[in-house]
Amino acid sequence: MSLERWYEWRDAPSGDFAVVGDPVAHSWSPRMHRAAYAALNYSWEYRAIRVPAGELEQALKALAQKKYRGVNVTVPLKQEAFKCTRPEIGAISRVGAVNTIALPSMMSTNTDGIGLYKALLESHVGPGASVLILGAGGSARSAGFVLHRYGYHVTVWNRTTETAAALAGEFGLRWVETPRTAGFDAVLNATSASLADADLPIEWSGRGLAMDMMYAIEATPFMQRAQSAGWRTMDGREMLLWQGATSFVWWTGIDPPIGVMREAISA
Ligand code: NDP
Asked: Is this structure's pTM higher than 0.70?
């Protein structure tokens, strides 16, 4: 898919909704949300806007003045967004990251975990399943916290072992030093290794679902290895779909057209 037209936050025209990050041109959120607006006959605009780290609070104030009412947040701004907005009371204070902000109120929430949960359910991996999460960054934190809460048995592996141990200790998860897939129903790649086409030192055996959180039309190296080992695979598009749909409802109170949004991010 082609890169999205994007704006620097100081130059952004007025609009209704946006995704902010740095870089932001690779985000598929604009095409997905715009397809939903078109299907519902709304003339809203959803833009991609670059906001460098350290400038989010200033940028959000400027976007509020330009009449934006909702903003999605992507890398590397999710923790910064948690600090400079008003996160909903409850679970997300444990995760420490937000991906959805309402303007001008600056209320915020995180829909990544629920997006992942819905994607897993659609792939028939429900509560009670045993899940190995690879990574201990922002996405792994929110995945580990939410899945544990929903009744999954979660184990974490990370390249930097200390971070995996700390994450597991904080949320009451298991952690391992070597990523062996035997005995797991699902393996979630929440590392950014696929962004760099890098391989992970996984010892594949058993059978289950291997999901890469990165969205990609072509199978990532992680997905290719999993397929060779006989695992079924999916990329991060269903997660993107459900986190976006949840943001949509949170901002507008309107049920989004899921089929249209899914079609907009399919190959
Ligand atoms: P972070 O930068 O917070 O975390 C990166 C993680 O990847 C760390 O655990 C890091 O390990 C690990 N890592 C990086 N490079 C390698 C490597 N070469 N080998 C092994 N481990 C590596 O990233 P995020 O959590 O924000 O994002 C992770 C992925 O999830 C990205 O691909 C992102 O696109 C995707 N994502 C998808 C979403 C969706 O809707 N589909 C939503 C959110 C994220 P270490 O601690 O050792 O450095």
From this structure: yes
